[in-house]
Amino acid sequence: MSEAKKNVERTRSIFEEMDRTGSFQPLLDALADDASYKLSLPVGTPLSGEFRGRDSITGYFERLDEVLDVLEVNTRDFVGNGDQVIVLGDEQFVVRKTGKRCTSEFAFVLEFREGLIAQVRVIEDLSGVVEAFAAPSAARVSRAS
Questions:
Q1: pLDDT per position in the chain (145 positions), as tens?
Q2: Domain tally for the chain?
Q3: What is the CATH number of the domain that holds 126?
Q4: C-beta atoms surrounding 57 within 10 Å
Q5: Domain limits at 63?
Q6: Which of 4, 75, 108, 118 could form a disulfide with 113 if both were Cys (CB 3.0 to 4.6 A apart)?
């Protein structure tokens, strides 16, 4: 089996185990010690920024549980190309601060190195999170745009 197929199967297994257990631990267990994790999320929320290393990424997931109540995650496609795997899907969540329910499509881009995840990039519409943590005047301006 090619390395690309192995990476797709690793990724599929991680996502299935997270779905089965309701825990992010399977992803955390698959990370390289120096892994990085970043969302397409502007500065200003507890989830913004790039998280480097296991401890920092674990802290991100702890904050995630404080910010969002994830209701459902659906993965549709796992596409591999060498050391990269792209996961396409959608999720429903509630932003705890506002009670706003959101539905969003996502793309996870995972980069593998020696069988471990070295980098994760999440591309997703998280405007509900941004809105919850925006200054009141900024939130009014963005709604008027």
A1: 788 899 999 999 999 999 999 999 999 999 999 999 999 888 888 899 999 999 999 999 999 999 999 999 999 999 999 999 999 999 999 999 999 999 999 999 999 999 999 999 999 988 888 888 886 654 444 444 4
A2: 1
A3: 3.10.450.50
A4: 21
A5: 3-144
A6: 118
